[in-house]
Structure formats: structure tokens, C-alpha cells
UniProtKB/TrEMBL annotation:
It is found in: Cell membrane. This is MFS transporter. Keywords: Membrane, Transmembrane, Transmembrane helix. Pfam families: MFS_1. It is a multi-pass membrane protein. The keyword Transmembrane applies. InterPro entries: MFS, MFS_Cyanate_Porter, MFS_dom, MFS_trans_sf. The chain crosses the membrane at residues 49-71, 107-125, 137-160, 172-191, 232-254, 269-290, 297-317, 323-345, 352-379, 385-407.
Amino acid sequence: MQFNVPSHAPWRGRLVVLAGIVLVGLNLRLAVAALSPIIEVVRQDFALSATQVGLLGTVPVASFAVFGSLATPLARRLGLEPTLILALLLSMSGELLRALAGGAPALIGWSVLALAGMGMGNVLLPPLVKRYFPDRIGAVTAAYSVAMSFSTAVPPLVALPVAVAAGWRVSLGMWAVLGFAAVVPWVVVIVQSVQARSHLRGLLRRAPRSDRPAVLVRPGAQENRLVWRSSLAWALVLTFFANTTCVYVLFAWLPQILDDAGLGADVGGWWLAVFAIVGLPASLLAPVLTARMRNPYLLVAGFAACWAAGLVGLMLWPAHGTAVWMVLLGIGPGSFPVLLTLIGLRSRTPSTAVALSGMVQGLGYGLAIAGPVGIGVLHGATGSWHGPILVLLGLVALLLVAGWFACRPTMLGAEAPA
């Protein structure tokens, strides 16, 4: 539910929170994107086996699933802001410790810690937007979605040159600085931000009493029952699963697909960066448009069409028109910010948004765990990329069907037109 707020100074008292949200978004993919571009450099020191490399590719999705699910009960006990600070500290510690790792097991273990914090942050951001920006859900979701896209796109361009110049440990550990920067605004919010909290209370007073969200964001059994019994929530889960699986399969296998097509592994890595960068405009526009549309299914259908066209081109003509396929595939994941925005828009209160975000992202990432590994096994069994890409096209079909139900103009629990 959005509130009617005067147009003058709509951000007053909330700029510290906005900075904190954007900085958290800037951290949410660093631990994933910083390692894969330099994995061959790391292998020179640790002699990583193919199994260990595959495990490192699976760790992000698994960590997002497991620790994303834990974010909801932690937020219930500690509150949203302290839980977010804990998540950032875990992520920073993992990034620094894996840069000091003495072997492959330690590298994998500390990577889990780094990704644990990011998995919790994934779940916590939508309810924080709902709490502090109930009148600007689309715009703020767009801001941190763009930051997430930067955190995916920049490391592949920077990590290898830094590793060559200063060593892979510096290349891995330097990103912890951004984690420290993200902690600062949230400490300010908790300790000193009287103005932000006063402005929030003003927003709530101007809203009808029946629509006011609870100030304490601690979801309990009632919110959890509401979420798990909702057909809308399950539709969001399936849509999230389909989109996420396609994304992480391409992050794991796109360089090899293009290398097998004769383009070379180095070219495949460059196209992977392009795949991430192209999504920036969609990350900016999709949340804003979603917040303005009664039913944003046309957006989801458009992104699914980009997925389908890009995958067909990659399957049939990977070495010809590659730029076109990469642009289409880069636009396809635009469904992700649409779903993040819907978590806030379809929840009546921040506490419900916490429960919904935990379910959608925890289960969505959990179901996606098998994606990169399963696609690799299928490729090994068939010796071709046609079968794996057909599986991805099947997931795009699921995205279209589940997205129809996820985008309906209903509030969570009402299951009737809003």
C-alpha cells in the first residue's frame, strides 16, 4: 500500500537510509562476481580440482537459499537493521578471510561465510524499502537494483587486472572496503537517526489507520502462515526460481558455451561481463514501471521473450550474432527487480514483507541450486549444449506461466483484485 505524501522534499529525513540501502545493494553480488574471473589464477596456487571449481560455482545459490531463509527468524529476534549489520559483518569477514586462505577447503569455507551475509541481505532489503519508503517502493528498489547490477558487472572487468598487478589475494579482499562503507549508514540509523524515524512516523500518521504498517518489523507465526498459504507467494517463488536458475546457469557456463563455439575462453569471459552490464537499464526502469502498473505482467512477458530469443540464438548460432544474443540475454533477467518490487507492493506491512521475502528468496534460490550442476551433468552426458539450453527454455516457459499469477493485482492473503 502506497501513501499519499506531499511532493515537496519527499526524501527528507530518509537520505541516510537511502544511502544505506544502495550501499548494501552494491555489496550483494561482489563475493560471487569477484572470484570467477580470477579462478585460473587461484588454481595456480591451490591446484583446485574440477569438483572444487564446480563447488565454488554452486556455493552462491546454496548460501543464498540457506542463509536467506535464516534472515527471517533473525530479523524477528533482533530487528531488521541489526540483522542487516550482522549480515554485512559476516560478508566482510568472509571476503577478508578467503583472501588469506591457505588452501582450497579454506577458500570454499570462507566463501560460504561471505555469501551467507549476502544471502541475508537479499532477503532484508525489500522489507527495509517497505518500512522506510512505503511511498517510493519502485524508485528505491530501482536504485538498489542498479547497485546490484554494478556489483555484478564491475568485478569481472577489474578483478583480473588487479590480480595480475597485485596478486589474487588483493583482488579478492579489496571488496570488503565497500562492506565497511555499507555498515556506517545503518549504525547512524540505529544510534542517531531521530529525524528519519520522526519523518517515518509522520508518513504513518497521514495514512488511514487501517493501512498503517507496524513499526516493529518482527514477523511472527501469523505472517508466516499467511505467506505459506498464499497462492500469490507460491507464484512469486516459481517465477523467482525460473529466472534465477537461468541467470546462474549462464554465469557458470556461458564462457564455456562460447569457447566450445570457437570464440575462445577469454572472449567468453568478456561477453559474460557484457551480459551483466546490459541489465543496468532494466534494473533502473523495471521497478519504477512495476510500481506504476496495476498488473506488470507485460514487463515479465517482455523479459521472458528476450530470454527465449537470446537462448535460441545461443543454441543455434552461438558464434554468429553473438552481440545480439548477449544483449537479449542481458535484458532477460529484468524480471528479478520486478519481483523484488512486488514483494513490497503486495505486502500490507513490513513484517509481512519480511516473511514473504524470506520465503520467495529462500525457496527460489533453494530450488535453483541444482541448476548449474544439473546443466553441467546434462552437457557431459550429451556432449552438446542443445539439451541444456532446451531445459532453460522450459524454465522460461515456467516464468511466463507463474509470472501471470505472480503479477495479478492482488494483496498477499486477499487473493482477490486489490
